[in-house]
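User: Hey, my collaborator sent me this sequence without any context and asked if I could get a structure. I don't really work with proteins. Can you help?
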Amino acid sequence: MNQLSTRELLYLEDTSKMFESIQKTCQHAMGECTDPQVKSLIQGMTGQHQQWIMSSASLVSGSRTMQ
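Assistant: No problem. I've predicted the 3D structure and written it out in structure-token form, which is a compact way to encode the shape of the chain:
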């Protein structure tokens, strides 16, 4: 794997923080939602954002161990 530049790492960290913020918003919305179909849609989005958070975090931590 090619080593990521500092700029790329900072971008990934910012993106990860954005995904975490979106996930928290989705979790809050699920708690407020009464419609089962909408709640199911939000649960899917939350799971997808969790995967993106884990993927970007693994790229950042993997690159940092290589430096």
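In plain terms: Residues 36-66 form the longest helix (31 residues). You can pass these tokens on to your collaborator as they are.
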